[in-house]
């Protein structure tokens, strides 16, 4: 393959983006959440993140000791009832356990000062996404 053609093909593949959307089964009381690539570029990448009806979870790297006290959580109000939640590691995990899937940390809306029913988005870039089956 010629260098120019290879460069164009590589750029095309790298520039592809997308989003993952978790959708309920159509009932009004279901919680809908969508994740997109509108992340805070200053924040670290996390393995996974999930917005639940009353909590936010982040799956982060761990060498065996990481818990919620290792992280700084930033909650930013971005509208009347909209919030962005971002985590940053504040303390190194110097343990030596093998935890390739990372560890999932949970913060409730109450712990974060977010009112129930608020629209919450993740501020970190998410490296892995969990599949959510769509139902009819």
Structure, explained:
The chain is mainly beta. The chain has helices spanning 3-14, 109-112, and strands at residues 20-22, 33-35, 48-51, 55-62, 71-77, 82-89, 99-108, 119-122. The strands form three sheets. It has a three-stranded antiparallel sheet. A hairpin with a 4-residue loop joins strand 5 (71-77) and strand 6. The radius of gyration is 18 Å and the shape is elongated. Mean pLDDT is 75; it is low at 4-39.
The radius of gyration computed from the alpha-carbon positions, rounded to a whole number of angstroms, is: 18 Å
Helical percentage: 10-25%
Run of helices and strands: HEEEEEEEHE
Query: What portion of the residues fall into strands of 2 or more residues?
Result: 25-35%
Major sheet: arrangement of strands:
3-4-7
**Poorly predicted runs:** 4-39
Helix/strand-derived category reads: mainly beta
The biggest sheet, with number of strands, parallel, antiparallel or mixed sense and barrel status, is: 3 strands, antiparallel
The mean pLDDT is 75
- Total count of strands: 8
N- to C-terminal separation? 45 Å
Query: How many alpha or pi helices?
Result: 2
Shape: elongated
């Amino acid at each position: 393959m010629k260098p120019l053609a290879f460069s164009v093909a590589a750029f095309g593949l790298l520039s592809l983006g997308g989003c993952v959307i978790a959708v309920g089964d159509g009932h009004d009381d279901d919680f809908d959440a969508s994740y997109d690539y509108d992340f805070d570029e200053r924040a670290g990448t996390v393995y996974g993140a999930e917005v639940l009806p009353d909590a936010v979870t982040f799956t982060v790297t761990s060498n065996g000791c990481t818990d919620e006290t290792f992280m700084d959580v930033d909650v930013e109000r971005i509208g009347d009832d909209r919030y962005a939640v971002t985590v940053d590691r504040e303390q190194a995990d110097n343990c030596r356990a093998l935890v390739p899937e990372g560890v999932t940390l949970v913060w409730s809306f109450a712990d974060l000062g977010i009112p129930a029913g608020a629209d919450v988005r993740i501020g970190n870039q998410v490296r892995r996404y969990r599949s959510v089956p769509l139902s009819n």
